[in-house]
Specification:
With 108 residues, this protein is mainly α. Helices cover 81% and strands 0% of the residues.
Length: 108
């Protein structure tokens, strides 16, 4: 699956000059990073490295629905979603979830 998403990411990079190209490429980049991190978590046995990989995987997993939303906005032609305020509004909840996950995983 990682190879397939990597091939699609390369295809998206070649089509980045089109109207939907950059957002499509970011979506597939995020998907590829998440799959690589997931595979790495299955391979690694060191608990300290595994904790870091799981946290990075969590961040990639939180960003995937947002990138999917951005792609659907761009594909359907919704105007104004690329302005700073709507982007910050959509990033608010994932940022809070990352902070809560970071605080809850800190060893006491």
């Amino acid at each position: 699956m990682v190879i397939f998403s990597s091939m699609l990411m390369v295809y998206g990079w070649m089509k980045r000059k089109t109207s939907v190209g950059p957002v499509y490429w970011l979506l597939l980049l995020n998907l590829t990073i998440w799959m690589i991190l997931y595979t790495s978590c299955l391979i690694v046995s060191n608990p300290d490295i595994l904790r870091i990989l799981v946290f990075l995987e969590y961040i990639a997993l939180l960003m995937l629905p947002l990138n999917w939303l951005y792609f659907s906005f761009d594909f359907s032609g919704v105007k104004g979603w690329k302005a700073p305020l709507p982007l910050l509004a959509t990033l608010l909840v994932p940022a809070l979830l990352v902070v809560v996950a970071l605080i809850s995983t800190v060893p006491s």
